């Protein structure tokens, strides 16, 4: 595990985007694992800038997103598909057919298994971007998720629903379930970049440093990966 202690959110976003830009420049057909949440927004802004100002092309890039809420259609303003379109995909030249986000509507169990099949049939994710939930969840793998889990349907914990309620009008509107890549699915990526930022993630980061192989803290599984890069901003460190 390589930990990069950065000062600010802006620095983290720039540094992480630089790694992606270098990789995509050298491997134009790279597969990137995208994440949602507030944390990667700055990184996506940097990628848009790299595209607009330096001509970084995403023409041949493939994207697999980590997760999606069950019950939200792609055009729902809080769906992760909508998030990716508005925060990144609509502003770069990535081909729409090459961006995969689990479908939130239809049969969720079937979607989870076909998403896993699509991932396994692909060349694999080169770089997976990850944020972290306050309870240590990655994607939507909540505490207690087995480390050998594949893409599956998960029931969200009340704390995760409450944390994500800020994006919805009421807590009741926050979906109760999601489809998420499993922990084993995530660990198959060749490189993981974990972004931790904000004073509300201080306790989370402390726990991340303290835990190892603890299903009660899903992000501890990442420490088993041979190529994990963690960016942590000053306000998330004690
Ligand atoms: C959601 C997403 C996660 C994300 C987490 C933290 O639960 N499923 O992928 O890491 O939120 O989000 P934020 O970056 O807004 O703190």
Short recap of the structure:
This protein is of the alpha/beta class and 238 residues long.
- Unique ligands: 2-amino-2-deoxy-6-O-phosphono-alpha-D-glucopyranose
Q: What is the string of SSEs from the N terminus onward?
A: EHEHEEHEHEEHEHEHE
The main pleated sheet reads as:
7 strands, parallel
Q: Which word captures the global form?
A: globular
Task: Please give the share of residues in helix.
Answer: 25-40%
- The secondary-structure class comes to alpha/beta
Mean pLDDT: 97
Residue windows where pLDDT falls under 50 for at least 5 positions: none
Ends distance: 19 Å
Number of helices: 7
Strand numbers in spatial order across the main sheet: 1-10-9-6-2-3-5
Keywords:
238 residues; alpha/beta; 7-stranded parallel sheet; 3-stranded antiparallel sheet; 7 helices; binds 2-amino-2-deoxy-6-O-phosphono-alpha-D-glucopyranose
Outline the structure in words.
The protein is α/β, with parallel strands linked by helices. The protein has seven helices and ten strands. Strand 9, helix 7 (202-210) and strand 10 form a beta-alpha-beta unit. The chain binds 2-amino-2-deoxy-6-O-phosphono-alpha-D-glucopyranose. The site of 2-amino-2-deoxy-6-O-phosphono-alpha-D-glucopyranose has 14 residues, from helix 5.
What topology does this entry show?
Elements: E1 2-6, H1 9-26, E2 31-34, H2 41-54, E3 62-65, E4 67-69, H3 80-87, E5 99-100, H4 108-121, E6 127-130, E7 152-155, H5 158-164, E8 177-180, H6 183-187, E9 191-196, H7 202-210, E10 228-233
Parallel strand pairs: 1-10, 2-3, 2-6, 3-5, 6-9, 9-10
Antiparallel strand pairs: 4-8, 7-8
The chain binds 2-amino-2-deoxy-6-O-phosphono-alpha-D-glucopyranose.
């Amino acid at each position: 595990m390589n930990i990069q202690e950065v000062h600010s959110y802006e620095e983290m976003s720039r540094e992480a985007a630089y790694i992606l830009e270098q990789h995509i420049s050298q491997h134009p057909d790279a597969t990137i694992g995208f994440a949602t949440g507030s944390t990667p927004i700055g990184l996506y802004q940097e990628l848009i800038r790299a595209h607009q100002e330096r001509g970084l092309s995403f023409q041949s890039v493939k994207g697999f997103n980590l997760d999606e809420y069950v019950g939200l259609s792609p055009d729902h303003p809080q769906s992760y598909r909508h998030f990716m379109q508005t925060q990144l995909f609509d502003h770069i030249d990535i081909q729409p057919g090459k961006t995969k986000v689990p479908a939130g509507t239809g049969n969720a169990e079937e979607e989870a298994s076909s998403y896993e099949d699509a991932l396994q049939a692909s060349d694999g994710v080169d770089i997976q971007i990850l944020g972290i939930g306050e309870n240590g969840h990655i994607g939507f793998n909540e505490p207690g998720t087995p480390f050998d889990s594949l893409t599956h349907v998960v029931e969200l914990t009340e704390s995760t629903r409450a944390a994500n309620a800020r994006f919805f009008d009421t807590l009741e509107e926050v979906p109760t379930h999601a489809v998420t890549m499993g922990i084993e699915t995530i660990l198959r990526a060749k490189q993981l970049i974990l972004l931790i930022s904000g004073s509300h993630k201080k306790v989370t980061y402390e726990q991340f440093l303290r835990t190892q192989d603890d299903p009660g803290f899903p992000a501890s599984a990442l420490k088993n990966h041979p190529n994990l890069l963690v960016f942590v901003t000053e306000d998330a460190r004690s």
